[in-house]
UniProtKB/TrEMBL annotation:
Segments for region (Disordered): 565-584
Protein name (Swiss-Prot/TrEMBL): Diacylglycerol lipase-alpha
Alphabetical list of Pfam families matching this protein: Lipase_3
Subcellular location per the Swiss-Prot or TrEMBL entry: Cell projection, Dendritic spine membrane; Early endosome membrane; Postsynaptic density membrane
Recorded topology in the membrane: Multi-pass membrane protein
Quaternary structure, from the entry: Interacts (via C-terminal) with CAMK2A; leading to the phosphorylation and inhibition of DAGLA enzymatic activity. Interacts (via PPXXF motif) with HOMER1 and HOMER2; this interaction is required for DAGLA membrane localization.
Top-level lineage group: Eukaryota
Gene Ontology CC: dendritic spine membrane; early endosome membrane; postsynaptic density membrane
UniProt entry keywords in alphabetical sequence: Calcium, Cell membrane, Cell projection, Endosome, Glycoprotein, Hydrolase, Lipid degradation, Lipid metabolism, Membrane, Metal-binding, Phosphoprotein, Postsynaptic cell membrane, Synapse, Transmembrane, Transmembrane helix
Transmembrane segments: 20-41, 61-81, 102-123, 135-157, 292-310
Length: 694
């Protein structure tokens, strides 16, 4: 950081990112130098054959190229390890060494072409085996290096690099009109570049109008996030390592304070005397929590066969195969009276959904409708009738495809399409569109009418309505509950791991009447939204500015227990700080780091939040104890900061959410002890989705 400037163009690589590439080439050339020296000076060759003499002279010349390469690569490594992320002055000579190395690469290219010409002319008639192997080795080594350099150049090429350099130069000369023109061109170029990357990522999908709009909006979002930032990808990795250490240090400092209301930090969240835990000894609260655990199974089932096989890779495949219409006649019985849209030829998704319930002996759940149609703003879902709970359940799938990711990333605020609103009701744009699509689908095909009229003898007409979902499905379910509540005023929504940027404050407060959300530990998604990204961006740049360590040391420290020395001590006495370098401007980012993203309306996770947290037992010589899980009522506005942790992605997975919910109940239900779980997993029928003990 900042990106290197070479050939009057900025590249998406920093001068401190060259340690590992240079080390790789250095080791490769060292090995080849030793092998080539042994072959040329230690092994006999046919001196009477002209092909051998020509090739030996060629090999001795290549030795000189290898020595030159080793000198340049060692210099690049040494220079790249100097300075810090922002203090680039000690590394200014790197670009000149790279120019020399590229000149040597041109010579290597000439040698590679000559080697191929020799192989074409002499390989068959020449009888000297040593000469043949030598020629093949030189050509292979040359082209390996050339291809690796070409791939690196392609990966680090910045389409807006030349405009960026011009903008930087005009800022120094204070040419306001020219600066404005170049800035506008740079923003357009960055948005266009991100759009091309997204289209490359989605190369196997058919573009539609809505998808093209999503490309533009998501590309603009990324361009806005990186606006005025001269950073490279490795800077973000180093910043995450530093930010994690800063968060851990702040938590430790708070706990060390004498007068402190915070008793502990569980999953990164402060616990005070005013923190409200769920009272699971109360029968009403326990029953409510059991319903939360129970309906998580529906949210998990919506993922279809991929999640089913991930959880049960061996026996799950056998069970699906035994029920599949392609391999078994009995498979058709599982899909009787079920309307299925756009499932695969074997109907694996609807079979997996049924298996999720049959494996837990929940035979009272009947699938009515399953939509596997997947597009931008059009999320798969299924509708089921649960006779045991007397509910009709709409379960919406979470993110499972690149199209879903585009829906997730369309994070601007959009007004909820409701006539009667109590305040300003705004929601996540992509999920508002998805909820509208599902509502339209339910009305056009009269799916809910079919579900409530499924079995009039059992009173299905009087069943309640429940909407569930996980991740993208959680946000869509919460918004869909707004849209359906005028028709079904008693409905309830269970939103598992919902996105943080979902509802405006007025909509969030209103949703507490009928939405229950669940967040597990340090889950990243409930802490993500446009307003949260602004804070994350600011904190990331702050730790990068304060760091005085080389980037390679920071990233290497992140692979193990992060050394506290890698983060500068905050709130230090200015007199005790080391003197600034002669050119202090080199410590500053070339752009204005105080610039925030464009103002966006703060959005929050929905409903009343149950936050499942756990402690972190210290490691001992005998290992680490199992953490203790507990559930507390969370504050919607407390999920305003991304907690950097290795668990922030893992704790978003739906099966981990289900496991965390069940672990909270272990102290209250002996039937859910860890030993009992293991024993029950050996039986043909897995343990039930919720504890059956009182």
């Amino acid at each position: 950081m900042p990106g290197m400037v070479m050939f009057r163009r900025r590249w998406s690589v920093g001068s401190d990112d060259l340690v590992l590439p240079a080390l790789f080439l250095f080791l490769l050339h060292c090995i080849w130098l030793v092998v080539l020296s042994v072959v040329l000076f230690g092994l006999p060759y046919g001196s009477e054959q002209s092909c051998s003499v020509t090739l030996v002279d060629h090999g001795r010349g290549y030795l000189g190229i290898l020595v030159s390469c080793l000198i340049c690569e060692s210099a690049i490594m040494w220079l790249s390890m100097r300075g810090s992320i922002l203090y680039t002055q000690p590394r200014e000579a790197v670009q000149y060494v790279i120019y020399i190395r590229l000149a040597i690469l041109l010579v290597e290219l000439v040698y590679a072409v000559v080697g191929i010409a020799w192989l074409l002319q002499y390989y068959q008639p020449c009888s000297d085996v040593t000469a043949k192997n030598l020629a093949l080795g030189i050509v292979a080594c040359n082209w390996l290096v050339i291809f690796s350099v070409c791939i690196t150049l392609m990966c680090t090429f910045d389409p807006t690099g030349r405009t960026f350099v011009k903008l930087k130069a005009t800022r120094r000369r204070q040419r306001n009109l020219t600066t404005y023109t170049l800035r506008h061109r740079l923003e357009e170029g960055q948005a266009s570049s991100w759009s091309r990357r997204l289209k490359f990522f989605m190369c196997c999908t058919r573009a539609q109008d809505t998808q093209s709009d999503a490309y533009s909006e998501v590309a603009s979002l990324f361009a806005e996030f990186f606006r005025d930032l001269d950073i490279v990808p490795s800077d973000i990795i180093a910043g995450l390592v530093l930010l994690r250490q800063r968060q851990r240090s702040k938590r430790s400092a708070i706990l060390d304070q004498a007068n402190n209301d915070i008793l502990a930090f569980l999953s990164g969240m402060p616990v005070t005397r005013n923190t409200r835990y769920l009272d699971l000894k109360n029968s009403a609260e326990m029953n409510m929590y059991k319903d939360v655990c129970y309906y998580m199974l529906f949210a998990l089932a919506a993922y279809g066969w991929p999640m089913y096989l991930m959880r049960k890779p061996a026996c799950g495949l056998c069970r699906l195969a035994s029920s599949c219409p392609c391999t078994s006649v009995s498979g058709s019985r599982l899909s009787q009276s079920v309307t299925v849209e756009e499932d695969n030829c074997c109907g694996c998704n609807v079979l997996a959904i049924r298996r999720h319930f049959l494996d837990r002996d929940l035979k009272q759940v009947q699938i009515v409708y399953t939509s596997c149609h997947d597009a931008v703003y059009e999320t798969p879902f299924f509708v089921a009738v649960d006779h045991a709970k007397k509910k009709v359940v709409i379960s919406i799938r979470g993110t499972l495809s690149p199209k879903d990711a585009l829906t997730d990333l369309t994070g601007d605020s959009e007004r909820l399409p409701l006539e009667e609103q109590h305040g300003t009701w705004l929601g996540h744009k992509g999920m508002v569109y998805s909820a509208e699509y599902i509502k339209k689908k339910l009305e056009q095909e009269m799916i809910l009418s079919q579900a409530f009229g499924r079995d009039l003898n059992k009173g299905t007409m009087h069943y309640g309505l429940v909407i569930v979902g996980h991740s993208l499905g959680a946000g869509t379910a919460a918004i869909l509950s707004f849209l359906l509540r005028p028709q079904y005023p008693t409905l309830h929504c269970y939103s598992y791991s919902p996105p943080g940027g979902l509802f405006s404050e007025d909509a969030m407060e209103y949703s507490k009447e009928f939405v229950t959300s669940v967040v597990l530990g340090k889950d990243l998604v409930p802490r993500l939204g446009l307003s949260q990204l602004e804070g994350f961006r600011r904190h990331l740049l702050e730790v990068l500015q304060k760091s005085n360590k080389p980037k390679w040391r920071i990233i290497a420290g992140g692979t193990k227990c992060i050394p506290k020395s890698e983060l500068p001590v905050e709130d230090e006495d200015p007199k005790s700080q080391p003197a600034a370098p002669p050119s202090s401007r080199l410590w500053l980012h070339p752009s204005d780091l105080s610039i925030a993203l464009s103002a966006s309306t703060p959005l929050y996770p929905p409903g009343r939040i149950i936050h499942v947290v756990h402690n972190h037992p210290p490691e001992t010589c005998c290992g680490q104890e199992e953490p203790t899980y507990s559930a507390l009522w969370g504050d919607n506005k407390a999920f305003d900061e991304v907690i950097i942790s290795p668990a922030m992605l893992n704790e978003h997975m739906p099966h981990m959410v289900m496991e965390g919910l069940n672990k909270v109940l272990e102290p209250f239900c002996p039937c859910l002890s860890r030993t009992t779980w293991k024993q029950r997993n050996w039986k043909p029928i897995n343990p039930p989705a919720i504890p059956l003990c009182s």
